[in-house]
Amino acid sequence: MTNRAIIGRGVVGMAALLLAGTAGATEFRITMPTAGVDASTDGRLILIITPDATREPRFQVKLGADAPQVLGINVDGLKPGGSATIGKGVLGYPAEDLAQVPAGTYTVQAVLHKYQTYNLATGHSVKLPAARGAGQNWREEPGNLLSEPMKVTFDPASKSVVTIPLTKVIPPVEQPKDSEFVRHFKIRSERLSKFWGTDVFITGHVLVPKDFDKHPEARYPLIINHGHFPADFGGFRTTPPDPNTPCVPAPRFSEPCYNRIEEQEAFDLYKRWTSDSFPRFLIVEIDHSNPYYDDSYAVNSANLGPYGDAIMKEFVPALEARFRGLGQGWARFTYGGSTGGWEALAVQMFYPDEFNGAFAACPDPIDFRQYTNINLYADKNAFWRVGPFGKVPRPAHRNYLGHVDYTVEQEQRLELVLGDKSRSGQQWDIWEAVYSPQGPDGYPQRIFNKRTGEIDPKVAEYWRENFDLVHIMKRDWKTLGPKIRDKVFLYVGDMDNYYLNNAVYLAEDFLKTADPPFLGEIAYGDRAEHCWNGDPNQPNKISRLRYHTMYVDKILKRIEAAAPKGADLTSWRY
């Protein structure tokens, strides 16, 4: 996510505010402003408590041993000047209850993540956070209310109350502007607008070739780079890095100045993109953020609506008409990593004639027998491996040595704190929102209980028949195989942090024996973490910045092999 300058960034107003005349607090009373807000507000009220006073608490929320304390409640019809209380009995993470938080001096902050009501075409009314320009990031979503960070002395044994006033409203995000190489394209989707009962738009950030405007006769292949919400086209810059830019470290890669590496790679992309030898393509990154997540997963869904058809039957044809795409399946490709890796494989399978290759790196689970490390069809519980005399927690995240950072239960609890009814905007909830049938209340049916881990086998069966990609390949290979057997390229590290390699192994088991034979590629990175994407010569920290160029040679070979007689193979090779 690109950082943006918004009000309230930084630790400001750090004065201690202790009420009720005591030196502690057991409850937090969060108050609405009396003016400048809607007549009534629905949403999720999130409270963060942290010993770290160096930056705003909202930007510290994460999983792991050094995570801050987070608690959350729903508010409905909260009026100007009104208040809501978070105290004992409210579910939290890492501690489940405020009573378990040690006494001490902390910095606290509250955020109200606003919901709006959608009257769906299914007849249900649901309250969800609208996508307002920040990629469903509750910390930065325009219109959300927040408090100044403040210091409190907390004592779980006292009977005091701390009042936290919500005083700021996050302003709108500035929209990106067109440039010589990056253009922006937006359409209203008829299909999605009908489903959601309100106008829904899809936006594309399009990287156009060198001299695009000077060659009106040229028509171009289209590459869709699927993945998480893009604020703009990422990883491309026309100027060299500034050596005086302050360093921003990347602990994951043990790099003290990773931002400078990113800037250099972005400039290198520009130089290669504009070189005489580079083929001229269109590459688009799509903003299809929605009320459940920063990305729709590019498929038709009972809960998100027909995003697959909206993208492929509305957005792509309009984009190709506007930017002179060739408009044929042999000249379309897709790639991505993680979420984008799953999407790349899914759209190649669900729209097999519309793409000529899918390069899927570190894809989200493509076989639900290894839903990370859970077998949704055989296991009864997602949180625990259960034996006759005990149980063992399932890990959710590891490093390349296998050291575990947090468990599945902990990850689910944080999501539940941030939002119930699949409304957290986090990873497991969007899988649920995309893959599950719609429940009687209009929200996604749970694949498993967020508090106990108990798996619902009926929901799992729905997932299997509709979104288990390996199962669908097996089921439909007689007709699907001839169309995609040479179009699928899978790459994953064998120590993927989220165990995503497990499902790829199962895909490989099937594809090795498939009839007609599989002619694509599957490769693993030795001890490579998330998100290894097929380059055996570069570490993740570099290869992840080269998606836009690393599959070009294979794409050109696919075009040469699949283009029909008389196809335009020259106008875009100037």
From TrEMBL:
Record SUPFAM superfamilies: alpha/beta-Hydrolases (SSF53474)
Annotated PANTHER family: ENTEROCHELIN ESTERASE-RELATED, IRON(III) ENTEROBACTIN ESTERASE
Protein name, as recorded: Esterase
Source organism: Sandarakinorhabdus cyanobacteriorum
The organism's taxonomic lineage, starting at the top: Bacteria, Pseudomonadati, Pseudomonadota, Alphaproteobacteria, Sphingomonadales
